[in-house]
From TrEMBL:
Keyword Ligase attached: no
Family annotation (Gene3D superfamilies): Cyclophilin-like (2.40.100.10)
The species this protein was found in: Gordonia jinghuaiqii
GO molecular function, one term: ATP binding
NCBIfam families: urea_amlyse_rel
Domain Carboxyltransferase: 25-290
Annotated protein name in UniProt: Biotin-dependent carboxyltransferase family protein
Length: 290
């Protein structure tokens, strides 16, 4: 069986597909690719089913080689893709011959990239998914140097297109579309939800994007409550914006917990969650309330 071997991982590289939905009632997070739009695009470019397993990288640095001929595509953050040291296209299908190397430079914009291989990454599934879940520990371990990833048998037709135009619109302040959440009534000033500017914190990860006020102020986001205890635990949806006692909102991403005890004041649209997953620390955002 053809396989790709990891020569370098960068800060973090994991196997990700579309996750393991349907197990939240058992306490199992969905997990999966943080930027699902980029993951499914990479799979389409190589003719895979959209749910096929890919490699998700964080801040570039990945380097792999293959022991057989494979078709690959890289999507996601704006990064230089190198084929045997020569620049190749982002969001474009690329043939690697046996012994070839593929490398990703640090992104000039964005955080995560997806490397799809025709046939998919064929590691053993857990509860129907090959995704690494950083919160629960389910799925394969994060990739390390020397990890050998088998490639599955190609299924489906040859891809009808070999490239896709990358998104070149990167505003100074990213607008994230959202709907008001079930606890929006606990906002101290609901009308300002779409006005404040927030900065992505350095402690953000695959569980969630943690935010600080851009102006450094400590104006409470929530109404004062005499009862400062947690709410009864409630289900947490993908893209929920929760406000813990610290007052720092958290946008929940792929590895979010299935329940939480703090107010959810907004829920991002699916496209906005993908965009949030690409935000590096220091990025500025505001919420665009529908």
């Amino acid at each position: 069986m053809t396989a790709v071997t990891v020569l370098a991982t960068g800060p973090l590289a994991t196997v990700q597909d579309l996750g393991r939905p349907g197990f939240a009632h058992l306490g199992v997070p969905t997990s999966g690719g943080a930027d699902r739009g980029a993951l499914t695009l990479a799979n389409r470019l190589v003719g895979n089913d959209e749910s096929a397993a890919t490699i998700e990288t964080t801040l570039g640095g990945l380097r792999i080689c293959t022991d057989g001929d494979v078709l690959v595509a890289v999507t996601g953050a704006d990064t230089e893709v190198l084929h045997n040291g020569t620049p190749a296209g982002l969001a474009a299908a690329l043939v690697l011959r046996a012994g070839d190397e593929l490398a990703l430079a640090p992104p000039t914009w964005g955080l995560r990239n997806y490397v799809a291989v025709r046939g998919g990454i064929d590691v053993d599934p857990v509860l129907g998914s090959r995704s690494t879940d950083s919160l629960s520990g389910l799925g394969p371990s994060a990739l390390t140097v020397g990890t050998r990833l088998p490639v599955g048998d190609a299924a489906g037709d040859w891809p009808p297109t070999s490239s896709a135009p990358p998104n070149s619109a990167h505003p100074r302040v990213v607008a994230l579309e959202c709907h008001r959440g079930p606890r929006a009534d606990q906002l101290a000033a609901p009308e300002t939800l779409g006005e404040d500017i927030w900065v992505v914190g350095a402690d953000s990860n695959r569980v969630g994007v943690r935010l600080d006020r851009a102006d450094g102020s400590s104006v409470p986001l929530l109404l004062h409550r005499d009862d400062v205890d947690e709410l009864r635990s409630e289900g947490i949806a993908h893209g929920s914006v929760q406000v813990p006692p610290s007052g720092r909102p958290v946008i929940f991403l792929a590895d979010h917990p299935v329940t939480g005890g703090y107010p959810v004041v907004a829920v991002l649209t699916a496209a906005a969650v993908d965009l949030a997953a690409q935000l590096v620390p220091g990025s500025k955002i505001r919420f665009r309330v529908r």
